[in-house]
Write a structure and sequence with these properties.
By secondary structure, the chain is an alpha+beta fold. The chain has a single domain, classed as Immunoglobulin-like (Sandwich). The protein has three helices and eight strands. The protein has helices at residues 6-22, 58-70, 122-131; strands at 26-27, 37-46, 49-55, 73-75, 88-95, 99-104, 107-110, 113-116. The chain has an eight-stranded antiparallel β-sheet with strand order 1-4-8-7-6-5-2-3, covered by helices on one side. A hairpin with a 2-residue loop joins strand 6 (99-104) and strand 7 (107-110). It comes from Clostridium polyendosporum. This is Lipoprotein.
């Protein structure tokens, strides 16, 4: 059996660590379980003001959960300040579980972690709000 020099082993560990820290990960994060939420509030903040919709209806909660669970999120670098966006949306889901999702154009803050999506989804969010 051939022995691997310690320097090569350390370099390998360093490379794996860097890839895991800085590599992009894609996929769904923390799927929301419909059975564990019973209240949702969606807040829309625009230059013209603030409006919100609160619901406890099962059908509305299903629409919101389906929308959030369908998002393909890509991890992004750490964001300290809120991104600039004309429209900002907040979805707060409460029950046995709590979920806080903020939308800023192509960026999403999901339970305290920042993600990026492929496109601005303001139109989809407005349609969701109008359907409730």
């Amino acid at each position: 059996m051939k022995k691997i020099p310690i320097s090569e082993l350390l370099i390998f560990i360093l490379i794996v660590s860097l890839i895991s820290c800085f590599g992009e990960t894609k996929g769904r994060v923390n799927k929301i379980d419909l059975e564990k939420v019973n209240n949702a509030e969606i807040v829309r903040i625009t230059p013209n003001g603030r409006s919100s919709v609160t619901t406890t209806k099962k059908e509305s909660l299903e629409s919101i959960v389906r929308f959030i669970n369908s998002l393909e999120l890509k991890s992004t670098k750490k964001i300290i300040d809120e991104p600039k966006a004309d429209h900002k949306y907040e979805i707060i889901m409460l029950g046995k579980e709590r979920h806080y999702i903020n939308f800023y154009g192509k960026f999403i803050k999901y339970n305290g972690t920042w993600y990026e999506i492929k496109e601005n989804i303001d139109v989809k969010l407005n349609s969701l709000i109008n359907s409730l």
